[in-house]
Amino acid sequence: MSEFYTLHKDTLEKAIKAKKDRGYWSAYPETPSRKIYGENAAKDGLAAFQAQLNNEFLMDHPNDLGLIGDEKSPYGFDLKISYPAASVDELVKLSKIAGKAWAKISISERAGILLEILKRTNARSFEMAQAVMHTTGQAFAMAFQAGGPHAQDRALEAVAYAYDTMAEIPARASWVKPQGKHDPLNMEKKFRLIPRGVSSVIGCSTFPTWNTYPGMFASLMTGNSVIIKPLSGAILPAAISVKISREVLVEADIDPNVILLGVDSADAPMTKALVQHADVKIIDYTGNTEFGTWIENNAPQAQVYTEKAGLNSIVIESVDNMRAVAGNIAFSLSLYSGQMCTTPQNIFIPKDGIETADGHLSFDDVTKAIAISVEKLLGDPARANGILGAIQNPATYDRAILANGEANVILKSLEPKNEEFEGARMVGPVLIKVDASQSDIYETEKFGPISYMIACDNAEHALELAASGASQHGAITAAVYSQNEAFIEQTEDAFADAGVALSCNLVGNIFVNQSAAFSDYHVSGANPAGNACLSDTAYVANRFRVAASRKLV
Amino acid sequence: MSEFYTLHKDTLEKAIKAKKDRGYWSAYPETPSRKIYGENAAKDGLAAFQAQLNNEFLMDHPNDLGLIGDEKSPYGFDLKISYPAASVDELVKLSKIAGKAWAKISISERAGILLEILKRTNARSFEMAQAVMHTTGQAFAMAFQAGGPHAQDRALEAVAYAYDTMAEIPARASWVKPQGKHDPLNMEKKFRLIPRGVSSVIGCSTFPTWNTYPGMFASLMTGNSVIIKPLSGAILPAAISVKISREVLVEADIDPNVILLGVDSADAPMTKALVQHADVKIIDYTGNTEFGTWIENNAPQAQVYTEKAGLNSIVIESVDNMRAVAGNIAFSLSLYSGQMCTTPQNIFIPKDGIETADGHLSFDDVTKAIAISVEKLLGDPARANGILGAIQNPATYDRAILANGEANVILKSLEPKNEEFEGARMVGPVLIKVDASQSDIYETEKFGPISYMIACDNAEHALELAASGASQHGAITAAVYSQNEAFIEQTEDAFADAGVALSCNLVGNIFVNQSAAFSDYHVSGANPAGNACLSDTAYVANRFRVAASRKLV
């Protein structure tokens, strides 16, 4: 068992160093290259995915409810995969039993097993890319990166935080207290790290690995057993992850029920029963705000970590080159059709326009520049397919179409053809002009490719609205464009107070939507968009406790 | 301002090392010695206390509600001190304003200020001892140690945890991501530590500094402003602490409202309004279980850290020397008349008795040995006064007197005279024999000097009852006496599962009630006796968050 640790010790140490340095570091290559992943990796991954279609997902796993599965690819076909399904009571019972032994092995042994799971998951990144693509609608390149290596990096980051926090606590200590002329008081103390118990991770349908792995690996590393509960429309990525994990656990002579899959159907959802089960002590949730807030308030028996949603914003005060800025924003709005929790929704612009290196631009000039950039970016259907992907949830598609009928639409959604998948549900960003006074429209989250261009009194007003919206309704990202250092400082203060990660003057190939493991803290935990961060010390430190035993020497 | 840090840097570094080593270490001498604290320290401390009686507590502090105060010494006289009182809205408003600048100074500057506060608090330990003695009823020696240096050590421990956790996060990072043949992506990132906001610490009447300082100093160190809300019967120790803190803050050019005192009366309590205020983001609570659970469930806007109560137990399986064991237990039951959160209530003993080095002892032999030890320990009135102290709350006294009328009393409470304070409310332990089946009696917390000797089928049964009581109702401490290594291991497993700190075979001058800063984790946070530990990383890591700002280089 300790062989896995020996094998991966170096990676773990580098990860621990990286999360302190917070510079660029990655353990799992993000390039879908045959040189890295093997000559046939792409072909084999696709074949593995295709062989899985219309078939039972073979996994030695509790299944007292038989087989369940009804996934539909956003690219227009049914996956027809059925998964072993178990009831909440059965899952929790088996998880508790398996957790006993898992809690007792050393943190090095656990880290070794978890890094072996990640290594094997990494090797199957092409298969995972197909699974993520056809459950979330992400385009292939994004599904590979976000569903594969980037998610694996986030998992490793959680392991690194948990390991580092636990490693500080000595297993034994000698407590020798001087007593003047008398003999000292002398005690031997033992400290045992104890987990909370059963942990459940509630996944989302847009990032079924990237948002699931941090909670899963943080809880496993801290000695908890884990039940992964994917949404019924995006089971396959979680099922592959669970299967790999169980295989490694069996090899390490550990009860594989340390990690279980909770499969349900839209007709008979199990999530409420699972998160309210008396023995579920940790809950990680990613998803809509309403249900996340319900969990925060209705599972008092558990530690609850949430990533919900909010109102991400861009504030434009002044720019150097409008074209470069518009290009960057256009990509941010288009990427995965605005289905990222980091996609900007609200763009605040002074109604009298802005200054640029090439002179003054009116409000309409600015919005037009962005609209033109979107049109250009998505003008080529092949490129558009690669950027937009497809819409995961029909409700998101309907919302976007509805928004195209709103007043003052600046740019209607483009709906490029997808040559490869004719049934793909695709829709590009719709840009709508509103006045700052219309907060009833833009201060509601409109998940998907819908963005508001908001005419503000001036730049200060723009900043004030963006920051107060974030404080009140939550936000994960914000961006500012300004050539004025004092205004940038003001922006930094305002968004720090609102607990939002800020990006300043991004142009070129780096986007506000992107969040890099080991460097960017994803979600601050300091506004209504979520109470936790992926990852920081607070994310791991309360998943375990210390039990002590002391005796006289 | 940074001078304070320079002055105390060495102490902080030692504290950080100590909390990792977890051996014996203390920054503040526990001996009330004139050599350490000065020739006149005892006399001056008493004089300062006496001068305060019947007077207004002079402190430059918000007071929109005028003056409030009605403390009564458990030693039989009224303190007649009145304190500046402010309304919840006023306190929170001023706390928020003061918090802005406090959040922005560096962690070294904050640490320096906090350690200067502790240094000055330490210098006034004799005055504090009087204040603690005459609000809690603790005997002088205990009031000095627990109210003074031990509380200061716990404060420093919280500062050390918070500083260490925050110091890991760099203020800046350079993120340079290779792009093959192209130029790397190059970003500069800034990370700002942001506090949660206003923190409120709800004190208890038995340990008004020891249990208040950890939350107070953890929140202050992490940049939050703090409102201390002592119970209306034990304000003075908190008021002295707040006054010293505000003086240091003013010297450091910081708005003293960073630390505020919330004074109320039993007739018009403010705690519910305070903890439910929308701007109160952190709550530390020590006190009874009912109100603690209410706070856990009714302040969703805040991070809540609780220390409540539970059923502490002793399991006796076998002993070497019964006399030594009985002496140790007798002291644990008698110390501060059982008013410690660490005092054992339930003593589980096999009904057929136990083995000792001197042969078999029956159940009655064991209970009789403990009863005799209590009688001997408290036989000398002067010594009894020094151990028992006085009873803080009349309800605790009434409960003890009532218990003396229960069936099967083994030892009735001794009520020794107090020569110095005639009106002292004093009562010694009452020991009551019950059968294991009478869980309705012993599975209820009876705060004060009431202990049950519980006749169990055998040692395994004793352990099972003790551990299940702890899991269900909470427990902070447990003790075991056994000469059988296998049974001790079994006990360690059972209490680790129940999240209780265990002491094995204590005899002599070390007691289950005692919990040493930097070494013993006080409260596990893993059973209903409380959700937090004083202190560990989890206690501090979620009191602040990280706000990031990044830009292209």
User: If interface size is counted as residues with C-beta under 8 Å from the partner's C-beta, which chains form the largest one?
Assistant: A-B, 64 and 64 residues
Helix content of chain A: 40-55%
Alpha plus pi helix count of chain A: 20
If you consult CATH, what is the topology of the largest domain in chain A?
Aldehyde Dehydrogenase, Chain A, domain 1
Would you tell me the structural class of the helices and strands of chain A? alpha/beta
Give the number of domains of chain A: 2
Q: Looking at the chains present, what oligomeric state does this protein adopt?
A: homodimer
Rg of chain A computed from alpha carbons, rounded to a whole number of angstroms:
25 Å
Amino- and carboxy-terminal Cα gap of chain A: 34 Å
Low-confidence segments of chain A, given as residue ranges, are none
CATH C-level class of the largest domain in chain A is Alpha Beta
Q: Can you count the beta strands of chain A?
A: 21
CATH architecture of the largest domain in chain A: 3-Layer(aba) Sandwich
Output the strand order for the largest sheet of chain A: 16-17-18-13-12-19-20
Strand content of chain A: 15-25%
Largest sheet of chain A: 7 strands, mixed
In round numbers, the mean pLDDT of chain A is 97
